[in-house]
Input
Amino acid sequence: MNKRPATLKDVAAAAGVSTSTVSMILNRRSQFKPEVEARVREAILALNYRQNPGARSMVTGLFGSIGLVVLDIRNPHFTNVVHGASIKAQAYGYNLIVVDLKEDISHATQTVDNLARRVDGLILSLRLTEEARDLPRELGKPAVLFGQTLQGHFQDLQTPSIQIRGREASMLLGRHILETGRRRIMYVGYSRSIWNADRVGALREIAGDAEVMEMSVDTQTMEAGEAIAASIVYGPQKVDAIVCYNDVIAIGLLHGLCDLGVRVPEDISIAGFDNIAVSRYVTPSLTTVDMRSEDLGSRSLERLHLAIESRDPGPTAVLLEPRLMVRASTQGSAK
Amino acid sequence: MNKRPATLKDVAAAAGVSTSTVSMILNRRSQFKPEVEARVREAILALNYRQNPGARSMVTGLFGSIGLVVLDIRNPHFTNVVHGASIKAQAYGYNLIVVDLKEDISHATQTVDNLARRVDGLILSLRLTEEARDLPRELGKPAVLFGQTLQGHFQDLQTPSIQIRGREASMLLGRHILETGRRRIMYVGYSRSIWNADRVGALREIAGDAEVMEMSVDTQTMEAGEAIAASIVYGPQKVDAIVCYNDVIAIGLLHGLCDLGVRVPEDISIAGFDNIAVSRYVTPSLTTVDMRSEDLGSRSLERLHLAIESRDPGPTAVLLEPRLMVRASTQGSAK
DNA sequence: CTGAGCTATTGAAAGGCTTCAATTAAAATC
DNA sequence: GATTTTAATTGAAGCCTTTCAATAGCTCAG
Output
């Protein structure tokens, strides 16, 4: 039942040709008599032969796998990135090795370095290059970075990247909030994020006479968002709108506010980033900015595929436009 | 910059020993003079040597990877399974190759068969064995199945499995709903699920004089849940409680009901399965049954690890207990 | 009919690692 | 100090595939 899998040699013997012939046919390297080819294909089927990936990778240096490193797979944003990448990976015939850092970026260099030895290319969160700027170049493997643009960073990257305009995203959201008459905006950031300054900066730039305040949570969880509600409501600063680092935090916070009897959006309006699936289904439905999570994943994989085949490069950095999704949590003017 | 990575031979030369010695040390196969070992380790560090996984796998037949096949990674239930598995994978030093079937089970056999050739073991959704009963045995690789028990199935599996008691889950939820005085229960299933009969059966078994009705949706999305709301509210049958196939559908449906002006839980109470993170954060918060998603993943990987090391078998099927999570969506008696 | 020019096919090497039997060095015994 | 035991180390084979130079088999021009 658990018999040794057939090898190239077995197939060659069965078809009465040399192993080279079989290998050539498998890799479409040259023309063969149709009759020979048919005989070989038949033998392959009969023996249920599959290439031994180890042996193959030893000589070609290729693995047929791509490594995808995400910060936290439970965050639907990253899940969607994985999903997008997975679709394309399947189309191109790659396996996807998913590494979940679980927000612990400290061993990332080590992890990525290890991963690099067993894949044909890597898709990495832009965030990682902040820890180790030269990481992608030291890998010796093609890599693509994905994530949000960061003012003054990532532009000179040698490594190709799929980036989504971060400042535009903030401004889209900020303008919408200002248009609804809000004047005291709280930005709830994620303390370990490198984008906080960018986000707040963009908001302040368009704020005019409105005030933009700032605070942070320590984990990207709904619990963290919920926990912060009281300090906003009972804090010293009056607030009439909240912009959260992402939808996960926003949803937690939204829930926390409602528990405290705050009316959303009448008393305080609230919004997030990412446009995760559930945002439309919380109450009130959450205004957010679609950060193109799935596109980030699929385009990264496409770009990486090109790099692996060493075709093109094409533009090094692809910029994606965020999309504002206005929903109930910011509808209606301030009272 | 992109110089050839160091090989065993390089290390051996640098340390002044044979390649066998280095290999032995790396695989802790026998005792060496501390001094020799130190010299070798130093050389490894100095040359930044890493084993070539291809070459290694060729001779050992091992890959250092595990394949995890899920039905839909965007469903937080499966995301949590991946997360649980990922934690243990990291602990044991495996890479996790995640394959997302995207609910399309038709090519599963092919996909899994391919995957099996490049991993040391597989973690598969129990659901797959329904398509191809002997799949795990034909793989020639250790496998672990995970998912819900199904009356009259999966008990005689030769393959180890981590199963969660499905009927108990339904009964836990059913009893709770009956205790709140509901008498007309609608079960909203997923049309492609093989567990519908089990779920409904379990509910009917404890229903007494209460009525259990049944309908289905075609995709496991919030949209699908939302879309079905009207047909429940305006349908011919009066309903005072809804049990959904999972939280994703339940959340969509909950939203749809609220849009139609139905008061939850006063008019209709609603519950789901899985206990995904967001269930606590929708309004009203959703009663559900925790299906131990993360444990399913982590225990599957632990079990698989044992099988790969060919230690034990231990019990073939591990049964996990579901946990009822009572929240606002079913609180309070029927009006 | 011969030899040149192609084409279809093959032989053999290479790639990096593990393993087992064999060798050498060290330790123990008398 | 010579000999036996035991421990530390190594040589060489083998894993399976790809590739490149080389061969064999044809065709065709002269």
